[in-house]
Amino acid sequence: MKDWLLTIFTIHNLFLLSGAFLIYRYSRTRKIYWGLTLAIGVLWLATSTYYLPAKWMKYEESRQKRILPANHKEQVYIHVFGAGYILDKRLNPSQQLSPTSLTRLVEAVRLMKSYPNAVLVTSGHSRYGVKSQAEVARDAAISLGVPSSKIKVLTTPDNTFTEIKSFTQKIGNNVSVIAVSDALHLPRIHFLYHQYPHLKTYYAPTNYQIKEGQNGSVGVDFPSVNSIEMVNEIIKERLKFAKDKAKVYFLKQKSH
């Protein structure tokens, strides 16, 4: 299943489909119709106001803790996962990366300063035969001060599963690696990396959506698109995780 197909499973579409089903199926049975309409309304409020989506997102983002090598002289690869870019030649490489990709790269570059023997690995393909995301991320890293000799690129992967597969094939499956990606994304990366038992894996979560502090907003909570999108992101990530688990399962069955 292509990842873009998973975008149909969103809260917006569930509301539309549920509403259409109600009108079609129960328009003649008022009690059931209004009962289900009320249930959909409650679900909409629950997913469009901040409290419950934030609690769910906080749980998801806490599933994979930050784990880094204790030995700062260790030979380690820092694998920054791709998350989109636009090859706009008016802009410098860092501005061509999506905000998510750029935040991941900045965290990876920061880690490079703490691990002098580290090698940065960027990954991501090009859908249209132009410069790949891995190459744009490499150029952005160079502009941020990383020597080109300390960067490797994986230009063929088009999703998380193939990014990790390409890493093990071209870098190695018996090395130390720090995965740099969104906190929401890292549990799936953890699962996929652990299909290679000789890899020594570490994790550097970034792009936290839930941030708590004394200066955080405590205003009145109204329904918002941002809260719905938070739920959508969780659902999409869970579906992609299920897809990758199924792929791993069937590949194992095929190899037996």
UniProtKB/TrEMBL annotation:
Which Gene Ontology cellular component annotation is one that this UniProt entry carries?
A: plasma membrane
UniProt key word Transmembrane helix: yes
Gene Ontology BP terms:
Gram-negative-bacterium-type cell wall biogenesis; peptidoglycan metabolic process
Query: Membrane-spanning regions, if any?
Result: 5-26, 32-53
Q: Which UniProt keywords apply?
A: Membrane, Transmembrane, Transmembrane helix
Q: What positions does the domain DUF218 occupy?
A: 77-210
Which InterPro entries does the annotation name? Cell_Envelope_Assoc, DUF218
Q: What is this protein called?
A: DUF218 domain-containing protein
Please report the organism this UniProt entry assigns to the protein.
Cloacibacterium normanense
